[in-house]
Structures are given as structure tokens and as C-alpha cells.
From TrEMBL:
Matches recorded under PANTHER family: BIOSYNTHESIS PROTEIN, PUTATIVE-RELATED, PHENAZINE BIOSYNTHESIS PROTEIN
Record's keyword annotation contains S-adenosyl-L-methionine: no
Organism: Aminipila terrae
Keyword terms, alphabetized: Isomerase
Domain of life assignment: Bacteria
GO cellular component terms, semicolon-separated: cytoplasm
The protein's name: PhzF family phenazine biosynthesis isomerase
GO MF, one example: isomerase activity
Active-site residues (renumbered): E47
Family classification: Belongs to the PhzF family.
Tagged with keyword Isomerase: yes
SUPFAM superfamilies xrefs: Diaminopimelate epimerase-like (SSF54506)
Pfam families: PhzC-PhzF
Organism lineage string: Bacteria, Bacillati, Bacillota, Clostridia, Peptostreptococcales
């Protein structure tokens, strides 16, 4: 099996969010879950994607953290298609279909920019109880009054708590109790917390973001496609994001891995369609002997 390490959502090495990408040999079935889990743990990145080609323009991808398999991973998908461009398996301009545990999704590549369709947006609940908001704030190391909107549990493939805070300064000073956050994530049945502050008017930035998922052995992540897809829907619900606009989310600055994640939302049916995308940079390429 071939592999690459890709920095997703960045055009510079050591920026963005690194992902492992493993390409199965032609005709090869997925290895056992145990092997894929051990491979992800050995590569030591937050997610590793395993790609199986099932057609000329169709792929099946499974995603593993060092701790467990997850249904979908945005940055590892961007990384996967970046790696396949490097291997000349996909074109710098093309449309592809992708089978995941979160459903069958579309991927569009235009001039090297990779955009992936998110799963159907779902609101799994709102935290309105003041005691529960205070509990969440305490776990995140902030004050309850720093929360500017009712947090909501949103999924576009993976569920996260959307946590809006009043300023970038507050965002930068979030210091979670990771053990408590892992327990709280289990209670709410979410991957973690996606915290954000709205960008200043005229800055061109929709929001600055930080993402925490200690339940999956990821204390903080530099770029999260599914979480920013969920944030796109959350801000659309609030009337902050409009259909047809290109939204820009900055993430990873607190980790010295600045990332730029773009999203687009369109409304053609009952539920909005959301695409999340960006660029990538290859760091390492090699072969895995299993």
C-alpha cells in the first residue's frame, strides 16, 4: 500500500491539518479494522484515510483516528484527493463520488481547489438550560457570559457542539478540562466542541475557530472540515451566512498551524447543500509493508 502525509487546508508545509492517506493496491480489500487502527496509531495523526477505488470516478474511503473509526473526516478527505492528484489518479478539474459511512458524497476539484459535499445538516438539539450552559463554559475554561448564542449540536457528518464566544480574545483563552470535556462529549453524544468567534466586519473572515475532541484522543485540531460544515449550517440558521456566498473560517492559529477552510451553501431543496474545501500540501510519500 502507498501512503502520503498531506497538510490539508494550507498551501504551506507545516500549516493546516496533517492527515495520513493510505491507498489500497488495485483489487485489494480493506485490511482488518485492527490493522487500520494500528496503522493510524503508528502514523500518529488525528485521522488517517484508507482509500479503495471502486470505479473510474468513484472511491470508498474509511477514516480512523488513533482510537476509533469515524464516519467522516473533512481534512482527511481533502488530503485524500490531494494525494490522488499527486498520484495522477484524479484530475485538477473533475467531479467524483465518494462512499463513506456518512453516506455517498460528491467531491469537486476546480483548478486544484478541492470541495467536498457535507452530509445532510442535522440539528440534534440546543443547549438552552442556563445550568447546562454554565457547565459547558466551566469545562471549556470560560465564563457563562462569554457564550453569545445558545450552543447547538449540529452534524454534517459528525456531530459537534457549536460554541460561539464574544471575541477572538476569549476564543484564544479557552483552556478546556480535557477529561471533563471527553465525559461531556459522551453525555451529548458528540465528537467534541467547535468554538468560534465571528470575524470583524470588513475583514473577509466569517469566523475564527478552535476545535476540541478529546473523546477521540484529539485535544485540539488545526482544521476540521465537517465541523466548519456544521458551523456553516448553524450560522445560516442564525441568518449570519447567506446562500451563494463563499465563507472563510480560520483555524489552527492557537496551534501555530494556520488553516483556511472555505465553505459554500446553496438551497435547492428542503435542506441546504453544503460544500467545504481548500488546498493542500504534500509532506511525505512512501510505502507501507503489511
Amino acid at each position: 500500500m502507498k501512503f502520503q502525509i498531506i497538510d490539508a487546508f494550507s498551501d504551506k508545509i507545516f500549516g493546516g491539518n496533517p492527515a495520513g492517506v493510505v491507498l489500497l493496491d488495485e483489487g485489494q480489500e480493506f485490511p482488518s479494522d485492527d490493522i487500520m487502527l494500528k496503522t493510524a496509531a503508528e502514523l500518529r495523526y488525528s485521522e488517517t484515510a484508507f482509500i479503495k477505488r471502486v470505479g473510474q470516478e468513484k472511491f470508498n474511503i474509511r477514516y480512523f483516528t488513533p482510537a476509533a473509526e469515524v464516519d467522516l473526516c473533512g481534512h482527511a478527505t481533502i488530503g485524500s484527493f490531494g494525494a490522488m492528484m499527486e498520484w495522477a489518479i484524479v484530475s485538477t478539474n473533475g467531479k467524483y463520488s465518494l462512499e463513506t459511512l456518512a453516506g455517498c458524497l460528491k467531491v469537486e476539484i476546480k483548478d486544484g481547489f478541492i470541495f467536498m459535499e457535507m452530509g445532510e445538516p442535522v440539528n440534534k438539539g440546543t443547549i438552552t438550560d442556563e445550568n447546562k450552559k454554565a457547565e459547558l463554559a466551566a469545562v471549556m475554561g470560560i465564563r457563562a457570559e462569554d457564550i453569545i448564542m445558545d450552543p447547538e449540536l449540529i452534524s454534517t457528518g459528525l456531530p459537534d457542539i457549536m460554541l460561539g464566544v464574544g471575541s477572538k480574545n476569549v476564543l484564544n483563552h479557552i483552556k478546556p478540562d480535557f477529561a471533563a470535556l471527553a465525559r461531556l462529549s459522551e453525555v451529548y453524544q458528540v465528537t467534541g466542541v467547535h468554538a468560534f468567534s465571528l470575524g470583524e466586519e470588513g475583514s473577509g473572515i466569517t469566523a475564527d475557530c478552535r476545535n476540541f475532541a478529546p473523546l477521540y484522543d484529539i485535544d485540539e485540531e488545526a482544521a476540521t472540515g465537517t465541523s466548519n460544515g456544521a458551523l456553516t449550517y448553524y450560522l445560516y440558521e442564525k441568518g449570519i451566512i447567506k446562500p451563494g456566498e463563499t465563507n472563510i473560517f480560520l483555524q489552527g492559529e492557537a496551534m501555530n498551524r494556520p488553516s483556511k477552510i472555505m465553505s459554500r451553501l446553496s438551497v435547492t431543496g428542503i435542506k441546504p447543500e453544503i460544500y467545504v474545501g481548500g488546498v493542500y500540501k504534500k509532506l511525505v510519500e512512501g510505502k507501507i509493508d503489511i
